[in-house]
Amino acid sequence: MLSELSQFVEDLSSAETMQQLRESVDSAIQWLGFSSFNISLDKRAVVEFMENPTLTTWADSDLKQYLRDSWVDRDPLLSQIYREDSAFLWHVEDWRDHEDYYHYISSFGLCGGISIPLHRAPGRRGAMILMSKSEKPLTLDTLMGAKILAHMVMARATNLSGKPSGSAAKRHRLGLLSQRQREILHWVAQGKTNREIAMIIGSTRRTIDYHMQEILSKLEVPSRTTAVVAVLGADPPGSPSRRHP
After folding, report:
1. Domain over 166-231 is classified CATH 1.10.10.10
2. Which residue intervals define the domain HTH luxR-type in the entry (predicted)?
3. Tens of pLDDT along 122-139?
4. Please, are residues 149 and 27 in contact by the beta-carbon 8 Å criterion?
């Protein structure tokens, strides 16, 4: 999954316009098994998620009808997204207790989805909402992939201009890291824990922990998995061979 996901991350980082970014997100979420998405960033009020989404495949007519019907005041999913700080999976049956909403989303043929809060600053909220029409159960692997995409989209959407793209973006990201940090990231890509990496390169666990925090900070990513995806396919100069024990 990681190697396939890396291509979509590459496409996201290569987008030069919001339209290109929207198309790249659409391709990525369909690969994950979703039919539509709505991404809202840096919103001051929950109504802005539907009034002025940052990127969406939802039809304007559906968004306007949603607002006319005052769903924003009684949408349990949107309310949970606005309150939560953690991503969550949901199934249409989860909303049985909210009968009106259950029938509303069922009318679109929706079976489930993933909601990923993207809150970055006090007083501002954001989220990526993915909708699925498939009865196939959503998995934690799907959630992990969606979270990686969400954070990459957020970074690209908020600073689209002036960023290097494609292979240049990979070289730029690698250039932010020291040689030691590149080596550590190489071993992370092999599935090694910080303790194992410390033993391999003759360092301490505490030092590796420090370098990992520096790597995440420099790459502006939320997790070690996202860091690997951000530079996947670009081997760090001087990194050890993959045949190294």
Report:
1. yes
2. 170-235
3. 778 899 999 999 998 888
4. no
